[in-house]
Amino acid sequence: MDQTAAGRPRKVRVHHLAQAKADGTKLTMLTAYDAVTARILDAAGTDMLLVGDSVGNTMHGRTTTLPVTLDEMVVAARAVVRGTQRALVVADLPFGTYEAGPTQALASAVRLMKEAQVEAVKLEGGQRVVPQVRALTDAGIPVVGHLGYTPQSEHLLGGPRVQGRGESSAERLLVDAQALADAGVVAIVLEMVPAPVAAMVTWRVNVPTIGIGAGPDCDGQVLVWVDMAGMTDWSPRFARRFGEVGQALGEAARAYVAEVRGGTFPDDAHSFAQ
Fold first, then answer.
1. Are the CB atoms for 182 and 188 separated by under 8 Å?
2. Are 187 and 181 in contact (CB under 8 A)?
3. Of 29, 208, 257, 271, which is the most buried if we count CB atoms within 10 A?
4. With 90 as the cut, is the pLDDT of residue 7 above it?
């Protein structure tokens, strides 16, 4: 990990994303929703931490991302920023906070930038959100796009289904990606897109693509951290479990319960002497 002269990790900035694409260096992104997790993922060398509206599913027990509010995103993003030294922190604009147009999008993004101090925002959609992207970039706010399966549109899309299948659908995705790149996004997330289509988008646009269920040829990859770490009983087909943290946490909790009930915790080593 690069260090500054003061020995601190070198901060990832938006120009580093473009440089990584130019150099062929794969970018890494994970979601984060709190300071404790952010600190761990940041120290591991993750390039970007995404404060996703997936907080609604993963942390709040909701079945979709749609009910997540901007207030909830501000709280989660603020915590992640406080736990981060190196990674670029990106926060989702939740459903209903940018669809009305550029003015609404700018007001929502400004809240995340000022109140949470994130370094970029992410929104879903292609050509239809170009005016919003331009308004944000004109105001100096870095924007990450999101194409393919877009969870905020899941009811219109018929649920979590692969997008970009078939020649016409793939061409629409390519047009959307180019429109976002032309509007000034700093990266584009491609979710649940056929690998050959994602590879074509990656080749055509001049900004990094970050894949999730979009094959190995994107410029980087993102996963929801609870899927990556094995915190759930079920993971999406495209997610690999790189650990079984949920099992380890359960074992630790069971050991704690057993020792408290058995009277072996706290012992002398964990008590204050008079």
1. no
2. no
3. 208
4. no
